[in-house]
Write a structure and sequence with these properties.
Structural class: mainly beta
Distance between the termini: 6 Å
Largest sheet: 22 strands, antiparallel, barrel
Bound molecules: copper (II) ion
Number of helices: 4
Number of strands: 32
Strand content: over 45%
Helix content: under 10%
CATH topology: Maltoporin, Chain A
Length: 679
């Protein structure tokens, strides 16, 4: 039986020898195997071989909110925060670092958004119906997915994988009161030992939401649908091929925190894989994939009142890539090797239509057809000792950017007359992690170094308007490679009924890339305060610390809690933007006889370390309370699951440090989810 609610926790047989020392995570992988955590998303150590137990039904009692958006699922993770520009397409951040400092992949595939204003993080191009889990690695533990500073996230697609389940399917629907969100989804699957076919579809439509106090947030509506098909065929007992295809389209998406909305955001994502159990006798789990994806993004300001100048801003992003990977075990050494590469084309333009139609149109290439080539080699070795282990890993990559459009190149040459068409870098990452067990204590510590190339916007963006600090941004093709030296440490004390983990990490980021005001330039966007150029600061420092715990009160009741503190400053001691103040969350879970219930609180302290130069204002402290109640019924062989809940029970009007331009969050919201699955 396939999981009804498709994003489900990792369970089953984790290879427990791996050490796990990520910030904010539970530090001992065994924990995952022993119980289903409250979180639906698991932080796993990258390259852990995670076998999701086959033929076992998902325990959706433990889903806090089935059919919630992927963004909400990600936000429930301990190490991810989401930057919000509206109700849709939130941007994941980890260790207080966002998209350009993270490696985010879908089933190992590199995908890049097509929006110059970060309206389409790649997490917006899949839905929970497609996915089985999100794999999260902090800092260089995420380097297996690509070059990164802050960490890596891989969204793993859900597949039947030759489990002998035969036919099964499900129908599900949800309604949320605050923005009248309607969700309809369904899936139909067939799987046997030789062949499987998984299909799913989901549709979401939401009106404007209301913040606390029943204040409507205009332009916060959205509509989205997503289809996916994936299939596998066994060529022989130890060989199989598989293919996946995802089509995702969002229309009429409002971005209340920005000056424009989106009329179309569309992705087509496809891949072909070949899997073989062994290779040359010594290697195992050999997996190879080729993939292609294409994204189209169209911004729209036609519905906004008082637009000073109408603009058309379409963008395209196209990526083709591959990877091939295998394990290799030799005595005490557990190696993992991966060779990967991608080719991306990013193109975005802007046409301005002056109100006086006698004036000429203005046209700019905001992304001048930038071609990015990246070929990388990743290797790790895990060496277990008695009650201890070491993991060493490295990524070495060749990375190049070329401006393929002459008009775009000549536009940038106004600022950088000496610039070359192509810029090539060699990117390196090294990491050592150590784990030691002492009675009930687990110690983890690690030192890492990593590098990343500037993003397309940072390197080649041309007058990209940022509504947060109200500046136009221009890229710099001569930026230095950003690099980071990172240290992490965590201690867990673990007993059968409770555990507590204290963890901390520190990133010293050299050549930190951020926009710096250039007073000699004049703005392009009407009403902008100035122009910023992406610049390397000498360094920036980021520090994160957290304390998390879990206590099993009885068989039915469980308590979890987490509190974290973050700090980020530049080389002059000034605050970096979008750094979390003290934040906390806590919950009591109840689960017995197919009934589940939850009461949770989530909040943050006042944001005292903010920076007006980046458009930040002080965000006040807040706390919200939520509750849910679920029941599962068995009808013949089939399964009916009903879940209802209230979020922001007290209808608090608030915004957090991650809310773009302090756009207020959703007020009180009732939801109801019904899932019916046929085995
Ligand atoms: Cu956009």
């Amino acid at each position: 039986m396939k999981a009804l609610i498709p994003v489900f926790p990792l369970k089953g047989m984790l290879r427990n020898y791996l050490l796990c020392a990520m910030f904010g995570s539970i530090s001992v992988p065994q924990l995952y195997a022993q119980e289903t955590p409250v979180d639906s998303l698991k932080l796993i150590h990258l390259n852990e071989v995670v076998v999701i137990s086959e033929g076992k039904q998902l325990d959706h009692q433990k889903q806090r909110k089935p059919l919630s958006t992927l963004d909400e699922f990600l936000e429930s993770s301990r190490s991810i925060s989401m930057v919000k520009r509206g109700a849709y397409a939130w941007e994941p951040t980890m260790n207080d670092m966002a998209s350009e400092r993270l490696a985010v992949t879908i089933d190992g595939m590199q995908i890049f958004g097509a929006c110059t204003d970060k309206m389409d993080p790649i997490t917006s191009y899949v839905d929970v119906s497609n996915l089985s889990e999100a794999q999260i690695g902090s800092g260089q533990q995420g380097a297996v997915f690509g070059n990164t500073i802050g960490g890596g996230i891989n969204l793993k697609l859900e597949k039947s994988n030759f489990r002998p389940t035969g036919w099964n399917g499900s129908l599900e629907t949800a309604f949320e009161s605050n923005n009248s969100m309607r969700v309809f989804g369904g899936e139909l699957n067939y799987s046997d030992e030789k062949f499987y076919l998984n299909t799913d579809a989901i549709y979401r439509k939401a009106d404007n939401y209301s913040a606390g106090g029943n204040r409507e947030v205009k332009f916060s509506q959205f509509e989205k649908y997503n289809f996916s098909v994936n299939s596998g065929y066994k060529l022989a007992a130890n060989k199989s091929i598989s293919a996946t295809l995802i089509y995702d389209e969002a229309n009429d998406v409002g971005y209340p925190a920005l000056t424009m909305d989106v009329s179309l955001a569309r992705a087509v994502i496809g891949s072909l894989s070949f899997n073989q159990d062994t290779l040359f006798g010594n290697f195992s789990n050999w997996e190879s994939k080729v993939y292609y994806n294409k994204i189209k993004h169209t911004m729209d300001d036609t519905k906004r009142p008082d637009v000073p100048i109408h603009m058309d801003m379409p963008g395209w992003s196209e990526t083709a890539g591959f990877y091939t990977q295998a394990n290799f075990n030799k005595v005490k050494h557990h190696f993992f090797f991966k060779w990967d590469g991608f080719y991306n084309k990013s193109y975005a333009e802007m046409t301005m239509y002056p109100a006086n139609s006698n004036e000429p149109l203005m046209f700019m290439l905001t992304w001048p057809d930038v071609r990015t080539k990246d070929v990388g080699f990743y290797a790790e070795d895990h060496i277990p000792f008695e009650k201890a282990s070491v993991k060493l890993s490295t990524r070495l990559a060749y990375h190049s950017n070329t401006v393929a459009d002459d008009f775009g190149l000549n536009s940038l040459k106004i600022f950088y007359p000496e610039m070359e068409e192509t810029n090539t870098r060699f990117l390196k990452s090294f990491s050592a992690q150590y784990h030691k067990m002492l009675n009930d204590f687990h110690f983890n510590g690690g030192l890492s170094y990593g590098e990343r190339a500037p993003s397309v916007s940072e390197g080649y963006g041309f007058y990209l308007f940022n509504s947060f600090d109200n500046h136009d941004y221009i890229g710099d093709p001569n930026l230095n490679t950003e690099s980071s030296a990172e240290a992490n440490i965590s201690v867990t004390y673990k007993k059968p009924t409770f555990e507590i983990t204290a963890s901390a990490n520190y990133f010293h980021v050299f050549n930190y890339i951020i926009g710096v005001v250039d007073n000699s330039l004049s703005t392009m966007t009407i009403g902008a305060d100035g122009v910023k150029i992406y610049t390397n600061l000498d360094y920036a420092k980021l520090f994160n610390v957290s304390l998390s715990g879990r206590y099993t009160i009885s068989n039915a009741f469980k308590f979890t809690g987490q509190v974290s503190y973050h700090r980020g400053v530049d080389d002059e001691g000034e605050n970096l933007p979008l750094i979390s103040p003290i934040s906390y969350r806590s919950a009591i879970d109840f689960y017995k006889n197919q009934y589940s219930a939850l009461l949770s609180v989530e909040g943050a302290g006042e944001q005292t370390n903010y920076n007006p130069a980046y458009g930040e204002t002080k965000t006040a402290a807040y706390a919200t309370l939520s509750a849910s109640f679920g029941k599962r019924f068995f009808i013949n062989e089939n399964d009916l699951f009903v879940k209802t809940g209230i979020e922001n029970i007290l209808d608090t009007n608030y915004s957090s440090y991650t809310d773009w331009n302090n756009i207020p969050r959703m007020g009180r919201n009732f939801y109801l989810t019904i899932s019916y699955s046929i085995n």
